[in-house]
């Protein structure tokens, strides 16, 4: 099982096309891992062409959809990509029904929590909250 993170980046010069950056997130050996896979120019601004571009890129790096299930998708920088009624998110969900859309803020919140737990006071407070939630009469 894996999820994809699609980021849009513009080249250094104004003459360069926008780039599609593909990262995969997966669970392996007890840890959640993220690996950058590919960056390539976007073929156009049309969602159907971008969807094909994403799916081709995933296959190109050797991910077999018969063995690994696509269960999540996240987009950064492409507002049209995350529309419920159209766009890339819906097109990929139509191809892979278990590929639920994950808003980028969920990833940001998770990163913030992970970083906050490196502060000892935050860790102590979280442990106390956990103890309170487990308290029984």
From TrEMBL:
Origin superkingdom: Eukaryota
Annotated protein name in UniProt: DUF4371 domain-containing protein
Provenance organism: Panagrolaimus superbus
């Amino acid at each position: 099982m894996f999820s994809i993170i699609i980021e849009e980046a513009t080249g250094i010069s104004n003459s360069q096309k926008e780039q599609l950056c593909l990262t995969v997130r997966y669970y392996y050996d007890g840890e959640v891992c993220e690996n950058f896979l590919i960056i390539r120019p976007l073929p156009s601004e049309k969602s159907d062409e971008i969807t094909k571009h994403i799916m081709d890129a995933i296959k190109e790096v050797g991910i077999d959809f018969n063995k690994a299930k696509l269960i999540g998708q996240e987009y950064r920088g492409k507002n049209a990509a995350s529309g419920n009624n159209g766009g890339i998110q819906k097109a990929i969900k139509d191809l892979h029904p278990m590929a639920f859309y994950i808003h980028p803020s969920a990833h940001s919140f998770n990163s913030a929590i992970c970083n906050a737990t490196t502060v000892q006071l935050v860790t102590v407070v979280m442990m106390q909250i956990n103890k309170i939630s487990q308290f029984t009469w």
